[in-house]
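Hi P.,

Sorry for the delay on this. The queue was packed all week, but I finally got your sequence through. Input first:
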Amino acid sequence: MKGGRQDRQTAGAFLGRGTAGLLILVLSITALLPFAVMISTSLMDEFEVFRQPPGLLPADPRWENYPNALTAFPFQRFFANSLLFSTAVVLGQVATAATAGYAFARLNFPGRDRIFGATLAMLMVPVVVILIPRFLLINALGWVDTLHGLVVTELVSVWGIFLLRQAFQSLPRELEDAARLDGAGEWSVFWRVALPSVRPALATLALFAFIDAWKAYLWPLIATRSLDRRLIEVGVASFHGFYYSNWPYQMAAAVAAVAPLVLVFFVAQKYFVRGIVLSGFK
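Then the structure:
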């Protein structure tokens, strides 16, 4: 009797793992299928896309679609703008989140908890609500269609402040107290003791900041006007207006735009997973 119950439990556990594995496989295929179609289409002939019935793979892969598409539009400029914008956003968000996170975690000042609560409340404000005020602000400063006007409103990440605050709070105070006993000031404690101890959290924030900045579309579309100021996502959308019937060229441009994010993900995958674990709302 006991052995039969154990066999049923083992069979149930095996069935559960098999069902979970099958579900993961189906979800993975569903997620990857659009990317597979995008890559396949990018290698097709211009008229092969409209073939009936549609083919899943190109009959004769046309690798020249990539250089042809990327030289038909100023994509080199778009990539350079996106790289410069993403780098500035990463540096700005890491700097502001590290200093603010340390202040909320370690410094005692009047109203600290209330200010932190008000800061977290900003997470509930939809981004589209503040698009117009942001544009009016940079327009009043004469910064529309400039890189600094595009960057200045992206230098603070509320999620990054929360992440770094949690990271600083997890550090043992004994390390900082020992540094103070040796004569270190508050800035030295922050720069030489606390900051090096939260490098994984800093790397996680930098990764998410880079991804968000690289795939930004709505704000760069509003804040820039000239073609040579566009970022890669806006550039791909503009490319559709010029080559709306040439789907292989459009897909080639889209694959090239996504490729840096894929590379960054595989290089820093552990920090990506860590960010999801540390904060379920990201």
